[in-house]
């Protein structure tokens, strides 16, 4: 039963899949993990912050723990996903159109997926976006203005496959599961009411676990009007799970949270660790501007994935993404800088909020 439970929890993290066997010489606090697919969401801008489009897979150089990696899939903005394999004696990438996101079925040496397990055909473009709305008692003032900003954001989303709307106070409410119906999301936003204490990190962790079950681009947009005063898990655990599952976190915080240096620093660290951004809005207009900025970011991201080359490191794996050629010095890159191969203790801590928040709804 223990092995079955661990397998279920590891599969919920999607991109990091457990498949190791313990021996007497191994530390009981660890489980061996085969990383099947690493997904990177990359923003490329010039020095003025303008997004750069039109880059090709060969413009990117990726290393993991200084080990060169080969791009498996490539997507720019809302364009269809393209898959690449190494072909020919020169070792160049050869493009293949694919029908669906690369599946985690069948593994080859070093925990990589066999290319033969992927079928051919077009892939639907677009990200899956989770909106997590603060409905704690911090939100009593200006609640309706916040709802307006979120509904405008939902209406303006283009190139996004599905949207989910969650809210939180002490517990997480999964108001509207992932859907392509924008009207359902708008009804969910308007039906929210202000609650009690704020358990942001508990509820964000559960949202990350929901997002981790998806392939492709996935992002969580958090609207928070104040600090966390009821969570059982630290924000570092949330950021680490988001990093390991390739989930972007965008934070929009109001003036109340900005007035607290601790909350400000935590929000900035968490979003940066995942390749997202943090915004601190001093007015309701600033909130709408922040949502517009996130929409533009999602529309201009490059999404790359790779199957990690054999790597004995079972802890933190450092990722480096660089541009090559004439673009190497002209542009700036924003993405996550690595991920940690999950351990048994970390998986257990990720499950704790779900067990303690018995009133969470689906």
Which keywords apply here?
single chain, 362 residues, alpha+beta, Rossmann fold, 6-stranded antiparallel sheet, disordered C terminus
In a nutshell, what does this entry contain?
The chain is an alpha+beta fold.
List the helices and strands and how they pair.
Layout lengths: L1 H10 L4 E3 L14 E3 L2 E8 L14 E5 L2 E2 L2 E6 L5 E6 L4 E6 L29 E8 L8 H14 L3 E9 L3 E8 L2 H9 L9 H12 L6 E7 L10 H11 L2 E7 H4 L2 H14 L3 E4 L2 H17 L1 E5 L9 E8 L8 E3 L3 E3 L3 H13 L6
Parallel strand pairs: 9-10, 9-12, 12-13, 13-14
Antiparallel strand pairs: 1-2, 3-15, 3-17, 4-5, 4-16, 6-7, 6-15, 7-8, 10-11, 16-18
Helix pairs in contact: 2-3, 2-8, 4-5, 4-9, 5-7
Can you walk through the features of this model?
With 362 residues, this protein is α+β, with helices and mostly antiparallel strands. The chain has one domain: von Willebrand factor, type A domain (Rossmann fold), CATH 3.40.50.410. The protein is built from 9 helices and 18 strands. It has helices at 2-11, 143-156, 182-190, 200-211, 235-245, 255-258, 261-274, 284-300, 344-356; strands at 16-18, 33-35, 38-45, 60-64, 67-68, 71-76, 82-87, 92-97, 127-134, 160-168, 172-179, 218-224, 248-254, 278-281, 302-306, 316-323, 332-334, 338-340. Strands 8-7-6-15-3-17 form a 6-stranded antiparallel β-sheet, covered by helices on one side. Strand 9 (127-134), helix 2 (143-156) and strand 10 (160-168) form a beta-alpha-beta unit. Helix 2 (143-156) runs antiparallel to helix 3 (182-190), helix 4 runs parallel beside helix 5 (235-245) and helix 4 (200-211) crosses helix 9 (344-356). The longest helix is centred in the last third of the chain and has 17 residues, at 284-300. The radius of gyration is 20 Å and the shape is globular. The chain starts with a helix and ends in a 6-residue tail after the last helix. Mean pLDDT is 77; it is low at 2-34, 98-124, 344-349 and 351-362.
